[in-house]
Amino acid sequence: MSELPPIILYTYQFSPYAKRIAWYLQLRGIPYKACEQPPVMPRPDVASLGIQYRRIPICSIGRDVYLDTRLILAKLETLPTAQPKLGAAPESEHAALERLLSSFTITGGPFVWAVSLLPPQMPVFKDEVWIKDRTGFFPGAGKITAPSPEARAEAVANMRGFVGMLETTIFADGREWILNTQDPSLADIEAVWPLHWLSRIPGAFSKDQLSEKQFPRVFAWVERFDKAVSAAAKKLDAAGISGEEATKTIVAAPYFDEAGRVLQTELVVQTLGLKQGDRVIVFPSDYGMTHKDAGSLVSIDEKEVVFETKTKLVGSPTIRVHAPRLGFRIVREDQASRL
């Protein structure tokens, strides 16, 4: 087994998305360093990489930097370690369930419902800096405010439907984990994170509507998962690292991924007339879209786009940034005025 490249996770303490990546690394026993970021912009440590992207987490593997938890998890699955992979076998029915859970929890509702279940008395709803930052995160949505009673009621109803589905189908046979495995798998990470996040926020769950009283199997699973990742974390070296040291570590490392190529059969490539080396702008298509990244195109296929950026270190050494195709837009830099 070859030596693993350095892995750095850009995170902040309460990010439920960053937890997805930390859990994976911990459960699989993959050493990494955590570069703590402020929960609001600006983030100079990320900017020093030549990256404007504002979502957390960001994860580097060697000299490659990956955006979006779905892509990050897919890349971590390819790491050669003594510990087995957490994902289901490709093209299996378990892999289908794993991907459906990932898609549903991120884009299908549970995370949005979870946000609406945040207690109105939380300090962040009185923090003008946080409110301004998150209002810019969702352009056109208006000023961020505490969830209304009506929004919370709808969120409770929707979340009960999700939790009830897990209770009466997947966990109905008494299994401990989503895929009936001996230990937590990637499918558990994909399903548990919104519920785990809320379960650690006092007042988020209503005891008479959404608790272990109504859904004992699901809430037992959440607690079981928490114990598993807590035990795994104690065995793992996950030291902190400064932003400056993180940037230096990344540019000094070898590339993890092959450079790839620009797939000429891709419709976006054909439509924009893209070729390797072209200047492109890449940004999320749903939220956080006001922060756009520009770089030189390295490769693009049906799954991801890779571009090169210049860091802010002396001599402007470059790194490769990877973004998934799903949920991201790509435009030519010379056509940026159309945005």
UniProtKB/TrEMBL annotation:
Residues 9-79 form the GST N-terminal domain. Residues 114-234 form the DUF7962 domain. Pfam families: DUF7962 (PF25907), GST_N_3 (PF13417). Gene3D superfamilies: 1.20.1050.10, 3.40.30.110. InterPro entries: DUF7962 (IPR058268), Glutathione-S-Trfase_C_sf (IPR036282), Glutathione_S-Trfase_N (IPR004045), Thioredoxin-like_sf (IPR036249). Signal peptide: none annotated. This is GST N-terminal domain-containing protein. It comes from Gnomoniopsis smithogilvyi.
